[in-house]
Write a sequence for this structure.
């Protein structure tokens, strides 16, 4: 049973050391109870209290990490069925499948595509994270060679073989990289459990149905393994979606510990072409795969999935923000115009994109409005003349420009008078209301 914030607080050291990132132990306790903080952040808690809280505060779906470093992929840890109830925390990892039966050129092409297909949107880098390497013939050296090649690129790995000796050879070249071992079955559960313990790796569990999967996870947890990933064995769209929903509901609503683990789905085995495969993958992004394995990666199929994943796994209760500050665009000098707007990420990227496309050098100041858009921030009293003036005076922009002119958003025209009073000697110019009008406006003023 989950503990309340007060119950958690009673077990904390109450030192208010702030090392966890929260101002007080009580604030940290409340964040733990809400699932917005991790117990590991507290470095002074006693071992007894840590053990008690770990069991009590653990999410119903275990959280685990595959890989290490830049491409480390955290999955699981979810606490709700629907995003609007709270939020989804760990977005599903997207993997591209390579097989040792492929030639080197094809393997290199897929691995290079994973590295190249990266996109920046609202301040985040969108990309696939994993390479799933399938044993295509039981060749130990070949499997280890392909594994080493992908590992050296830094990607998180899924190692797929039912031969323990082949798996051991691959694990030996990825020490410390935490690949996912795929997969333990009724036939090899004991030996694969030994490998997972020896190399400290998460282990996937494959069963023909939910009953078989549950029996396997209970056996493996009894052997001391905690980081498990479930493959319920479904390879049709209908059954795959049904199994994902059933596993999530069993873990959250029925408190089934045997099914309280993240899942893996294989759209690459459910479709005969990449477009249908992408459509199937989009279902599993929403409900509820922890890892999604694709047969290939291309911009026109991967980008929509990444964008869907971003939208679903963005906290609906927390606006996306850009860091306040001064942003030079198109290499401005001291005579370049100065614009200001709010720190709502979408506003920043639209405005900066329009300035960039105009090719007019400019300075863009971003003011902290707690993630609100211009009109909303003005209505909420967070983008007013006195506040904007104080921000401009403290920002240091006056040292970078040789003029005293500032362009404010058209929707913020009501702050004109107050801003002129706050910035004596400055000329305040009302800019366009719509970002699309910025290029023409700048060219006219340049």
């Amino acid at each position: 049973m989950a503990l309340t914030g007060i119950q958690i607080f009673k077990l904390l050291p109450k030192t208010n050391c702030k090392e966890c990132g929260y101002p007080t132990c009580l604030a940290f306790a409340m964040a733990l109870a809400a699932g917005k903080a991790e117990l590991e952040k507290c470095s002074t808690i006693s071992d007894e209290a840590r053990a008690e809280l770990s069991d009590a505060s653990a999410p119903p779906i275990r959280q685990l990490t595959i890989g290490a470093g830049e491409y480390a992929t955290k999955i699981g840890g979810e606490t709700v069925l629907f995003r609007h109830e709270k939020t989804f925390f760990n977005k599903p990892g997207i993997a591209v499948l390579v097989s040792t039966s492929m030639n080197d050129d094809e393997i290199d092409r897929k691995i290079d595509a994973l590295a190249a297909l990266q996109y920046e949107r609202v301040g985040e880098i969108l990309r696939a994270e994993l390479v799933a390497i399938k044993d295509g013939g039981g060749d130990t050296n070949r499997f280890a060679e392909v594994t080493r090649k992908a590992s050296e690129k830094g990607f998180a790995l899924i190692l797929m073989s039912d031969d323990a000796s082949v798996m051991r050879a691959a694990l030996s070249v990825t020490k410390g990289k935490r690949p996912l071992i795929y997969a333990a079955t009724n036939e090899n559960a004991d030996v694969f459990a030994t490998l997972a313990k020896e190399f400290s790796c998460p282990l996937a569990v494959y069963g023909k149905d939910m009953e078989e999967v549950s029996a396997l996870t209970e056996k493996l947890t009894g052997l001391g393994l905690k980081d498990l990933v479930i493959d319920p064995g479904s390879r049709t769209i209908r059954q795959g979606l049904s199994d994902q929903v059933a596993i999530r509901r069993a873990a959250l609503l029925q408190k089934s510990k045997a099914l309280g683990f993240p899942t893996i789905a294989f759209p690459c085995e459910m479709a005969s072409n990449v477009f249908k495969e992408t459509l199937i993958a989009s279902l599993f992004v929403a409900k509820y795969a922890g890892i999604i394995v694709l047969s290939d990666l291309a911009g026109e199929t991967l980008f929509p999935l990444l964008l869907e994943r971003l939208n679903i796994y963005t906290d609906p209760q927390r606006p996306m923000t850009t860091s306040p500050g001064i942003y030079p665009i198109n290499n401005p000098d001291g005579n370049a115009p100065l614009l200001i707007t709010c720190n709502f990420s979408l506003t920043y990227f639209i405005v900066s994109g329009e300035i960039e496309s105009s090719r007019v050098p400019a300075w863009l100041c971003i003011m902290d409005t707690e993630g609100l858009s211009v009109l909303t921030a003005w209505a909420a009293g967070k983008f007013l003349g006195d506040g904007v003036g104080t921000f401009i005076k403290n920002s240091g922009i006056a040292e970078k420009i040789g003029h005293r002119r500032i362009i404010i958003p058209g929707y913020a025209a009501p702050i004109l008078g107050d801003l002129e009073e706050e910035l004596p000697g400055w000329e305040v110019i009302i800019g366009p209301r719509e970002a699309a009008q910025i290029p023409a406006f700048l060219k006219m003023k340049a």
Q: What stands out?
A: Residues 5-57 form a domain with the 3-methyladenine DNA Glycosylase II; Chain A, domain 3 fold (CATH 1.10.15.40).
